[in-house]
């Protein structure tokens, strides 16, 4: 999408032709995803109301009041083969100018809404909180941020220290989105479908062909470091420093992309994502301790 329309992720259902296309990958046959979703909307100063909602403030279930809430410090300095070019450990009480929060209804999801008022920094971490808003038909409103203005590049290594509260129907997505705001492609470094925090997904949405999904088990209510090493023709997904999936082929994006971090509530009846139910807590938080980005050396 382009022009003045919001910066959405996967804004349209997959075409039949795309579902029939082949994707050549080292891990076997691609699995088509019968779903579509949303991604970062543009800066609320130009595309949304930007008005903080009424409601409870985000609450932290782990690590509040410390500057190293996850127990693992932000890495500083270069790594073999990688040059560190961006870090944020979310100290202070507000987002740095490297990020903007976005707002609006997720495309294709009448059960969700993004609002900058659901994004906060405190206790040494970023918190993106989800809770019901009476003025949004009692939907679980969530939020998201992007560093598209500060850092849009082709290829790199991305490490993100995060956790997510349990909460049926509230999903998270840590992703790379095209710098020109035209989907596809998209690289989901880590996401889930709100059906539990016992499995994490990495998904490639190529320019042509079907999306490719891989998953790994774990308890993602606990802190983990998720990562991606993106090089020409290759994606290596990592979890706590260890590779867990590798995708190769000409479907791997070769255009500038930027990082986005978000959570989202989903409508009932979706083919992949769950929707909130009577078990969903009043407040469901996505928390990020730090982000580190590297360029190939």
Strand and helix map with partners:
Layout (H helix, E strand, L loop, with lengths): L15 H5 L23 H4 L34 E7 L11 E2 L11 E2 L4 E4 L2 E9 L5 E4 L1 E3 L9 E9 L5 E9 L7 E6 L7 E7 L6 E6 L6 E8 L2 E6 L2 E7 L8 E9 L18 E13 L1
Parallel strand pairs: 3-6
Antiparallel strand pairs: 1-17, 2-7, 4-5, 5-6, 5-17, 7-16, 8-13, 8-17, 9-10, 9-16, 10-11, 11-12, 13-14, 14-15
Could you tell me the number of beta strands?
A: 17
Per DSSP, the total helix count is 2
The geometry reads as globular
| CATH fold title | Jelly Rolls
Largest sheet: 10 strands, mixed
Give the structure's gist in a few sentences.
Helices cover 3% and strands 37% of the residues.
Explain this structure to me?
The protein is mainly β and 297 residues long. The chain has one domain (16-296): Jelly Rolls, CATH 2.60.120.200. It has helices spanning 16-20, 44-47; strands at 82-88, 100-101, 113-114, 119-122, 125-133, 139-142, 144-146, 156-164, 170-178, 186-191, 199-205, 212-217, 224-231, 234-239, 242-248, 257-265, 284-296. The longest helix is centred in the first third of the chain and has 5 residues, at 16-20.
